[in-house]
Please model this.
Amino acid sequence: MNKSSSKEIIILGAGLVGSLLSIYLARRGYSVHIYERRPDMRKENISAGRSINLALSDRGWRGLKGAGIEEEIRKVAIPMHGRVMHNVKGEITRQPYGEKGQAIYATSRGILNCVLMTEAEKNGVEIHFNERCTGIDLENATAIFNEKKIVAGSIFSADGAFSTARLHLQLNTDRFEYSQNYLNHGYKELIIPAGEGNTFLMEKNALHIWPRGGYMLIALPNLDGSFTCTLFFPFEGKDSFDSIKTKDDCIKLFKRIFPDALPLMPTLAEDFFNNPTGSLVTVKCFPWSFKDKLCLMGDAAHAIVPFYGQGMNCGFEDCTVFDQLLEKYGDDWDTIFSEFQNLRKPDTDAIAELAYMNFIEMRDLVGSQKFLLQKKIEARLHEKYPTKWLPLYSQVTFSDIPYSKALANGRLQEEVMKKIMKLDNIEEKWDSPEVEKMILNHIS
Ligand code: FAD
Model:
């Protein structure tokens, strides 16, 4: 590793991506300072209202491994081997995520962030808390705070979906492309507490989904036996955040729509009104960098909706890719920034699209018999011909195939499966040599 550079680096934001990136940079010998607007979460509880747990998958693990902290996180992550779908009658269907042994992992955002910050400090990174960046002087790589200005060799903006540095680029540079799109749905976190003796009141090693067409509830397990639930729900309309005015409205809605979840949620009505309603945004922009002075990373460059569980994973993959470019180009930061954005932009645009597509899939399709049959056919094909057919979900979640390639492969597969699912009596002959031959003809 390059231990010779004296370049001073500023990272804005000690969130998940900023903290991980700092470890990679410090391990290459750079002097790294992070400026974080919030207090130190290891000393103060500031998690209220933010998504408490996240699904960590292969791209995220790769990022953590590269920084030497995979094992630390494995100890506190809960494997989820598949989806458990709950229909409106409370009946359950299971669908594995991948092959036997494959899983995505429920991980506490708070624990993950705390471990990342502590590891960053162990590597010599200095984190300055309660420091909100208010502006940037691009030409001089200077971060501006209320009372002071700090000059760096380069600045990384890992300050999340509402990035200050990105806003500066938007307002002050020519031909900066920017778009933000909000869903008509927001989200609210709710809780299923642990049973007696910290027991799990539902299947532990699964991601639970209550798909209901226009909206859905999901639940991920926590280490203490509880589940964090997230209700993805329209802001306005018949069944919507707007339509729930009283605690009674809330209970009635759950009784009607999520009847098997309701008895597990003793504080539902209080939580519903105490917890904030979050909005869901996709942000796209370009370029992500300015000369060798500034580079956006993580949600600051590419915020996506959370339905593929890939926002953080994609941000961690940014760090892996960036580190590979440091290895290749040494201290040539102009080239590194430019190549980084050119490499990543098609992939982050692709995962933005995939995440939106998965919103439709999760809320509308995962409960349908036809959809489940399609997934069964795909799983069987993969079992028999692993190199010819890798389901899209596996490409995104259990591989490092570039997201853009996964999206293209997925489109092709969907076209083939559309034809197959239209066959007469597909329910009976789904596993027949005839169907198998048709699929193989389409893809070879
Ligand atoms: P953030 O985590 O937002 O961190 C940004 C940091 O910058 C924060 O600490 C903030 O305080 C700080 N900051 C902001 N402005 C300034 C400023 N001006 N000056 C200094 N500091 C500043 N991803 C997954 O991979 N799997 C999931 O299952 C998943 N589930 C999700 C569920 C929900 C409901 C949501 C909303 C998101 C989910 N995500 C998931 C996405 C994931 O949370 C984000 O992609 C990830 O947090 C991005 O990390 P980041 O470090 O880029 O930004």
About this structure: Residues 333-365 form the longest helix (33 residues). The mean pLDDT is 93. The two ends are 44 Å apart (CA to CA).
